[in-house]
Every structure is written in C-alpha cells, then in structure tokens.
Amino acid sequence: MQITVLGNVGSWYCAELERAGRERGHEVVRVDFRWLSATIGSSDSGSIAATGTPLDSADAVIVRTMPPGSLEQVVFRMDALARLEARGVTVLNPPKAIECAVDKYLTTARLAAAGLPVPETVVCEDSEMALAAFDRLGGDVVVKPIFGSEGRGIFRVSDPDLALRAFRALDRIQAVLYLQRTIPHEGFDVRVLVLDGEILGGMKRRGDGDFRTNVSRNGKGEPHDVTDAERDLALRAAAVTGARFAGIDLLYDRGGTCYVIEVNAVPGWRAFQRVTGHDVAAHVIAALDG
C-alpha cells in the first residue's frame, strides 16, 4: 500500500506514521499542503500533486495538518481532497468530516441538533451583538476563533469593558465572534480518541493554572478509564461529524453534567500515547489496511 501523509516538516506524527507503515510493509511519504497543485484539461486531466508527489496514485492520504491560509487556500485544499476521494483514494479523515470539525459553529450546531450536550453558544459578526450575548450568557464567556485548535486564540472574559474592547478588536479584523458560556469545572477535561467507531482510550487533561486544559498549553495528561456515558457521547460526536478518526473533548461542570466541547478531526496523540501506551499510529495504519 502507498500512503501519503499531508504533514509538517519534522512532524513527530508523520515520523510515527512512517514507522508504523514500514512495519506493515507499506510505503509512507510525507508531503506539504503548501505545495498542493492540480492540473485540469491536459493529458493528465484532474491530477493532484504536492511537492511533485502525485496524490491520486496513492492508496490512501492521511491529513495530519491544516495549515493557516486564506479562505481561498483552505477551500482549494478541501476541494482537492474531495476530488481525491471521488477518484477512489481513501482520505483520512474524509474531507466533509474535516470541513465540519474545523468549523466550530457547524460542529456545535450539529452536536446540539443531535441532542448532545454543548455549552450555550452565541455566534455573530458584530461587537454590539456580542456584548448583548455576553450579558445573556451570564457575563462570563469563553471566546474562541471559529477555526483553530490546541487552545490557540481562545480567551476568557468576565469584565464588560474588557469584553467590549475585545469584541471591537475582533470586529475590526472581520472575525466571527464565537462566545460560549463559561462552564465552572474542577480543572480538567477528558480527551477520548475514536477510530472507526471504536474507542482507543481516554486521557484526563489537567490545566496548569489555566482554564484551558490542552497539553499543548502546559496541561498535564494522565490515564483515564472511559465510562460508558463518555463512550456514548464520544461515539455519537464522531458520527455527527463523519470523522473516522477523532479526538473528542468532554468537560464536566461542578454539578457533574458532561458537555461535548470539541471534535478534532486531526487529533494529536503524543501525550495520549505517552500516558496510555497505545501505539496510535499502528492502529491508524491498520485501519487503512481494512
């Protein structure tokens, strides 16, 4: 099997996938999203390549990053992945799943529509509307970029003056204002890793003096036995987005109610692997083997 990984130079995840692929006798090649190109209307009509490597001749393409870019660049990348899938190339995760999961508004709306518990959320494009939502959400909100991961660009605000200044700053750069009611919690969340409808395991992440618990933000990972209720929420959340491989983030409030906070369709697993001992890359490659 020939597997292409869209990932960053020096990525630990790409190296892990290459190692796991070799162990199963597969060729795994890393390429860079920034060098993606497509040819239309020639003898090789419809061909898609990156860094000179043809992607449409691969058996599978694993998406390991979605680098920042303009709307046009992101749309082109997703279109190219969709064309690969239409030509019979297995794409992990499927383009539609990535499109959903990278969009916090779409993901939250679909989770809520499916009856999954999510924090009360308001999304708008105007700072005055955001300030009214700030009051409606109890005057203590978490503001998130609609696109983003690993806790980047997320901040909490509970002062009306600071809130208005922050909202106006985001308004000026034409950002979408995504506000969620702050959920008081005990300083940890639960990351559950899902692959093809099965639970690979769970990890508890404790914040290091920060309301964000992401390990990339100095949170501390520890083993966690996934409960039946958490298993159900995680599997349903992955199914809502259509993701074969996903990291589902769950957060308990102080009353014990569990909320689905995020579905990550390009999940990291370095800390998860360290605390659980699971060889995640081997599971991913085995899933592509069918």
Question: How are the elements arranged and paired?
Answer:
Layout: E1 2-6, H1 12-23, E2 27-31, E3 36-38, E4 48-50, E5 53-54, E6 60-63, H2 71-86, E7 90-92, H3 95-101, H4 104-113, E8 121-124, H5 127-136, E9 141-144, E10 155-157, H6 160-172, E11 177-181, E12 188-195, E13 198-206, E14 220-224, H7 228-241, E15 245-252, E16 258-264, H8 270-276, H9 280-289
Tally of strands: 16
**Spatial order of the strands forming the largest sheet:** 14-13-12-15-16
Protein structure class: alpha+beta
Give the integer mean of the pLDDT values. Answer: 92
The radius of gyration over CA amounts to 20 Å
Given the structure, what is the number of helices? 9
SSE sequence, one letter per element: EHEEEEEHEHHEHEEHEEEEHEEHH
Largest sheet: 5 strands, antiparallel
Poorly predicted runs of 5 or more residues: none
How much strand? 25-35%
Helix content, binned percent: 25-40%
Span between termini: 11 Å
General description of the model:
Strand 15 and strand 16 form a beta hairpin. The mean pLDDT is 92. A five-stranded antiparallel β-sheet has the order 14-13-12-15-16, sandwiched between helices. A four-stranded parallel β-sheet has the order 2-1-6-7, with helices on both faces. Strands 8-11-9-10 form a four-stranded antiparallel β-sheet, with helices on both faces. By secondary structure, it is an alpha+beta fold. The chain is built from nine helices and 16 strands. The chain has helices at 12-23, 71-86, 95-101, 104-113, 127-136, 160-172, 228-241, 270-276, 280-289; strands spanning 2-6, 27-31, 36-38, 48-50, 53-54, 60-63, 90-92, 121-124, 141-144, 155-157, 177-181, 188-195, 198-206, 220-224, 245-252, 258-264.
